[in-house]
Amino acid sequence: MHDRLYRSLYRIRRVEEEVARVYPTDKIKSPVHLSIGQEAVAVGICEALRPDDVVFCSYRSHATYLAKHGDLKQMIAELFGKVTGCAKGKGGSMHIVDAAHGVMGASAVVGTTIPHAVGYAFALKHQRKDSVVVSFFGDGATDEGVFFESLNFAALKRLRVIFICENNSYAIHTHQRRRQPNLNICDRARSFGIPTERIEDDVLKIYERSSAAVGALRAGEPGPFFFECLTYRWKEHVGPNEDFHLGYRTREEAEPWMRNDQVKRMGEMLEPQQRERIEREVEAEVQAAFAFAEASPFPNGAELFTDVYKKG
Amino acid sequence: MDRTLSYVEAIREATDQEMERDPSVILFGIDVDDPKAIQGTTRGLAEKYGPDRVFGTPLSEDAMTGVAIGMSLAGLRPIHVHIRMDFLMLAMNQLINIAAKSHYMYGGQVHVPIVVRSMIGKSWGQGAQHSQALYSFFMHVPGLKVVAPTNPHDAKGCLIQAIRDDNPVMSVEHRILHFQKGPVPEDLYAVPPGRARIAVPGEDVTLVGISYMQVECLRAQRYLEEVGIRAEVIDPIWLSPLDIDTIVASVRKTGRLCVVENGWVTCGASAEIATQVSERLQGAREIRIRRMGFAPVTCPPTPKLEQLFYPNGRTIASTAYDLVRGGSEGWLPDERKDLQEIEFRGPF
């Protein structure tokens, strides 16, 4: 298990580092919201899922996409704006999608995909399927009206959906303290009668708790479940750099989170040889994905007008 | 032989027949299963198909639109009903940012076959927030289809088409049109997108009436007949995609176009139609164009002012008369009993 978790965590970290490294060359003309520091949430949850389970996510979704085994080559090609991208270069970093692997499209508008997860879960219940739906969103999304409306309906219909609030304390540059009178986001979900739990930044704990929730839902227990996962964004809101110079947060605030780095922690739990092999394989995969993106063509002009409407 | 059904009955029958044909069709919205059953358009369906397929929802237009999108991603074909079009303003993020764009921005990987039914109100004091006709908002955005059927036959065929369409369709009804009666085949049939209908042929002036204003244009045509003006009345039916060819061909013949909007004129459907006709015919044909629609104010509830707010058969006839005869003679036909508006007694 530890090797799987490490592989997924390390892979996301390396992809994001590579995106950050390439970004100044302007080959990626897409606003990137990097997941560095927040990998444990996506990995802890997605490792508890089956391939036929479905995730919905926000614009900071590289980690979720990769943790759910979305196609890496297609993701990087999408960032490069290439026709081989997951959305043929028509989505970009904020709209990555891999429906075949259960990664439904990400949205740039905060909170927007929460009801999609609920509707998808409604359909699965209707179709008598036992797949589980997971809705990922940030603490900022819990300010939105659609968050409350969606939880209300999911609880009313007892839908098989797991809500994951990735609380990194900031909506862009504004701290939760300046937006919410009660900092316990679980209280919001609890008011709908939804079982809730706040989980520290600990990938094993997240995996354990989400596995239990997934198992319960598959066994026929009514949903939904709600987890508030405490996490921290290391890089700027959008872009490849750090942003401690802006003054809205301090490096001192970030340091405990960096010391608790789950990628490093899981790596140290492996045998050195095992770890080295994983890192070597991931590195080759990452390099191949960037080479694939680089070598792929841009969409031709006619592609501008395709996919506006579904034909047939 | 065709039966006569009301518009309400036609909508109900289309929904019923499609739900029977396709188990993935589900119907929901605020009050769809209550005793009034959305003016009767959903009557009996909750009993027939059960609460898993037909259900009233919490008052959450925003999330329920997103829920419809999520359902459609998983293979269902939801019909989401709003008893007034004004309430769609609460759902604009999901409709514009997601429903319209998903197929494109996700590179064709997904599609969103949802139907959004909504109703435009008129008279009996509907006022500021029960009377708005906002279909032009949706015409503006690529990825949505917009339809506004004006008779029972089209109400059934367009709804069937909308349900079967793999794209999001905004289906716009008008409260007054609900009272229309007309021939409706029992069979399932689709009224396809992008095909307008010439309701009455004529040579002197083209009248294009949108939604309820189609009825008023047909009245205007009768008034104009009295003074020897033969108006061609066109019902666009589908506003997006729009059958501009049929309208252009008509104006090429008549040289005169009056587009009567069931909404405000500025940036409205009439602006779009008039512009496209001008672009197509400029340099090839001398044409004269007028647009009519809501007065550029908020809809007042008091009958005295409300009457001035909307175009009607007589004011449309007067405008068309001036287009044909030139000048502005201020001709206004005397009101005929057989062409009076349908009395709408409220409350809703």
Any overview of this molecule?
- The complex is a heterodimer of chains A (312) and B (348).
- Chain A is an alpha/beta fold.
- Chain A has one domain (2-292): Thiamin diphosphate (ThDP)-binding fold, Pyr/PP domains (Rossmann fold).
- Chain A contains eleven helices and seven strands.
- Chain A has helices at 2-22, 39-46, 62-67, 72-79, 114-126, 145-156, 185-190, 203-218, 251-259, 262-268, 272-295; strands spanning 54-56, 133-138, 161-167, 170-171, 174-175, 196-199, 225-230.
- In chain A, the strands form two sheets. A five-stranded parallel β-sheet of chain A has the order 1-2-3-7-6, with helices on both faces. Chain A has a two-stranded antiparallel ribbon with strand order 4-5.
- The longest helix of chain A has 24 residues, at 272-295.
- The radius of gyration of chain A is 19 Å and the shape is globular.
- The termini of chain A are far apart.
- Chain B is an alpha/beta fold and 348 residues long.
- Chain B folds into two domains: 3-184, Thiamin diphosphate (ThDP)-binding fold, Pyr/PP domains (Rossmann fold); 197-339, Rossmann fold (3-Layer(aba) Sandwich), CATH 3.40.50.920.
- Chain B contains twelve helices and 14 strands.
- Chain B has helices spanning 7-21, 45-49, 61-73, 92-99, 102-105, 135-139, 152-164, 213-226, 244-254, 269-281, 303-309, 313-325, and strands spanning 3-6, 25-29, 54-56, 77-82, 115-120, 145-147, 169-174, 181-184, 197-200, 205-209, 231-235, 238-240, 256-264, 288-294.
- Chain B has a seven-stranded mixed β-sheet, sandwiched between helices. Chain B has a five-stranded mixed β-sheet with strand order 9-11-10-13-14, with helices on both faces.
- The longest helix of chain B is centred in the first third of the chain and has 15 residues, at 7-21.
- The model of chain B has no long low-confidence stretch (mean pLDDT 96).
- Chain A binds chain B through residues 54, 56, 85-91, 95, 97-99, 104-105, 107, 109, 112-124, 126-127, 145-146, 149-150, 152-153, 156, 306-312, and chain B through 26, 52-53, 57-58, 60, 62-76, 78, 93-94, 97-98, 102-111, 113, 142-143, 145, 166-167.
